[in-house]
What does this fold into?
Amino acid sequence: MTLTRFPRVPLGHFPTPLEYLPRLTAQLGGPRILVKRDDCTGLALGGNKTRKLEFLMAEAAAQGADTVLTTGGVQSNHVRQTAAACARAGLSCHLVLARAVAWDDPAYETSGNVQLDHLLGAQVHLLPPGTDRDGALRRMASALKKSGRTPYVIPSGGSNATGALGYVACAEELEAQADTDGERIDYLVHATGSGGTQAGLIAGFQAIASQTGVLGVDITAHAADLRGKVSAIAKDTLARLGGGDRFSKDALQIVEGYAGGAYGMPTEEMRAAVRLVARLEGLILDPVYAGKAMAGLIDLVAKGRFKDDQTVVFLHTGGMPGLFAYNDYFQEK
Ligand SMILES: *Cc1c(COP(=O)(O)O)cnc(C)c1O
It folds into this structure.
């Protein structure tokens, strides 16, 4: 174990299951497809931020923080899970929410994640469109400091080297599961957004010399920016682990073309993928992340990206509360 020396607060249900998807595999007619159930990490309906928050909340505690601040879109899963982690730690929590998605479903600003943020007792600050959210976050943190509080600021998505340690842990966990089950995992496919998940996986697989390739399906529609973020966080994470910050260029693969027009804007392919997986496997994906990543995986299989004797693990990163903010879009017509 490379991670025991890093402070960590237990928040999640681990290991998450690794399950075979026989009906999806048969339908697509390509590689064996498994799902790593990081939608089942626990912590207020689960998702990939649980793993990051185990390390981030430990850092907040080590710094004596009494208040946690973070930011995201109105339907941010990261923000919802941060609110839950703060509730468990008894810390006050400020969420700076940006109207980042031009989506006018009446449920968008009241249901799903934002409903849960309020339920979890966080103080929600909804920014007017066009406000610089990182600036707002910094101003709020310094105002809190002046008033005698000790704030701890978590970046958007929990994506820095501390948060990424959660996905180093996931890489180790998956490798151990594959060993136990006698699986050889050729690729891990997942939604990549603020970069911490992919960076942690790249660093984690390298640290254990795994042969598994990581394919991050871009959901931001700004893949070039995202590549830079993943690269920077992966370097920082490797440096934290010790043994240098270098990784091979081939290890950082971002798959473009499945984000649609913008972050959070639904696509037909996403809706078809969400329906297909629900109906074949009883598995619920979300419209913003896992649904688009699955649309990417389905298309990559169709284009022959994988060999039939390979095994691909789809990392289900959670996000299901977001589905309810897109209620109209999923109505059967
Ligand atoms: C945040 C999030 C992602 C993306 O993870 P990053 O570390 O931000 O790249 C994927 N899926 C869901 C459901 C998320 O909430």
Q: What stands out?
A: The longest strand covers residues 67-73.
